[in-house]
């Protein structure tokens, strides 16, 4: 099971959209997939539209036992091959350090149990963690549990500073409690190819982070909002815009899975490393 945390410092830049796009691409590849919705807003849960559960990730993060996990896990309405560990509003309580200081690594424990759980079931091949809009405890617990961290940004003037702080957070976790964590780099979302401003901001990102900026950006397309509103995977939404976005997410997922197999640690500055291999996606 390959686990990808989708994060950003800023809200509303497209984390959930990217998490759902990657889940849709994983289904298209025939991969059994899990989405863990770590955002108390529950947007990913709403779009994946699972049946009611008797528990949520809040309980799992408190007690990562099989029975609790089973109560918080539900099949999505997208496909029987895609399950959701559902969010609830009270997840917010876990985002701040509290007197009962819950263990940050309980998400990793829960995912470990799911990994070891087949008993006749097809195991998950891809797990996608949709993080809330901060680098708080919930996002840190995702970084502790992940193999790959994917930063999402919009091409705006705040993108560089936001990505810098997020890279620092990833690096701190990689050098500390989760040495297997790799950075997949920065994925630019809501790109308008005809906007001079957007190209300028992407150039700025590339000057700062080199090849850690993914060569593929997600364009700004109404189809994304339409598919989300209809609770459908982008690959099932029939429009030219949706088709283009679907192909883009296929490429992003392929790149993440490929670089994880190659075992590379692509962090800012990788562009200066002459031994680094060229990107192809
Ligand atoms: N590439 C895109 N084209 C068009 N609309 C988009 C695109 N990406 C995101 N959106 C829309 O922008 C809004 C915010 O996106 P999304 O919810 O994915 O951001 P987020 O980073 O998860 O937000 P939050 O920080 O609140 O969790 C949504 O309405 C979504 O449909
Ligand atoms: Mg979100």
UniProtKB/TrEMBL annotation:
It comes from the Bacteria. CDD domains: ParAB_family (cd02042). It holds the Pfam family AAA_31. SUPFAM superfamilies: P-loop containing nucleoside triphosphate hydrolases (SSF52540). Residues 1-182 form the AAA domain. PANTHER family: COBYRINIC ACID AC-DIAMIDE SYNTHASE, P-LOOP CONTAINING NUCLEOSIDE TRIPHOSPHATE HYDROLASE. This is Cellulose biosynthesis protein BcsQ.
């Amino acid at each position: 099971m390959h686990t990808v945390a989708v994060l950003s410092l800023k809200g509303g830049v497209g984390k959930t959209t990217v998490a759902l796009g990657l889940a849709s691409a994983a289904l298209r590849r025939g991969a059994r997939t899990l989405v863990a919705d770590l955002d108390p807003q529950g947007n990913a849960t709403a779009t994946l539209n699972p049946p009611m559960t008797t528990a949520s990730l809040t309980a799992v993060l408190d007690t990562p036992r099989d029975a609790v996990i089973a109560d918080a896990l539900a099949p999505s309405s997208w496909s029987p091959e895609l399950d959701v560990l559902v969010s609830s509003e009270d997840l917010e309580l876990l985002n701040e350090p509290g007197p009962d200081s819950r263990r940050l690594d309980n998400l990793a424990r829960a995912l470990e149990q799911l990994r070891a759980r087949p008993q006749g079931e097809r195991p998950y091949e891809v797990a996608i963690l949709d993080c809330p809009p901060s680098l708080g405890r919930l996002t840190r617990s995702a970084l502790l549990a992940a193999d790959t961290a994917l930063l999402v940004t919009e091409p705006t003037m705040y993108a560089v500073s936001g990505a810098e702080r997020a890279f620092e957070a990833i690096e701190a976790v990689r050098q500390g409690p989760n040495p297997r964590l790799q950075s997949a780099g920065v994925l630019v979302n809501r790109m308008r190819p005809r906007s001079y401003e957007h190209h300028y901001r992407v150039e700025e990102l590339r000057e700062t982070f080199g090849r850690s900026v993914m060569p593929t950006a997600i364009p700004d397309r109404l189809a994304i909002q339409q598919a989300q509103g209809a609770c459908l995977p982008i690959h099932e939404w029939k429009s030219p815009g949706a088709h283009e976005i679907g192909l883009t997410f296929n490429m992003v997922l392929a790149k993440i899975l490929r670089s994880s197999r190659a075992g590379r640690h692509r962090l800012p500055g990788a562009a200066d490393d002459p031994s680094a291999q060229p990107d192809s996606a």
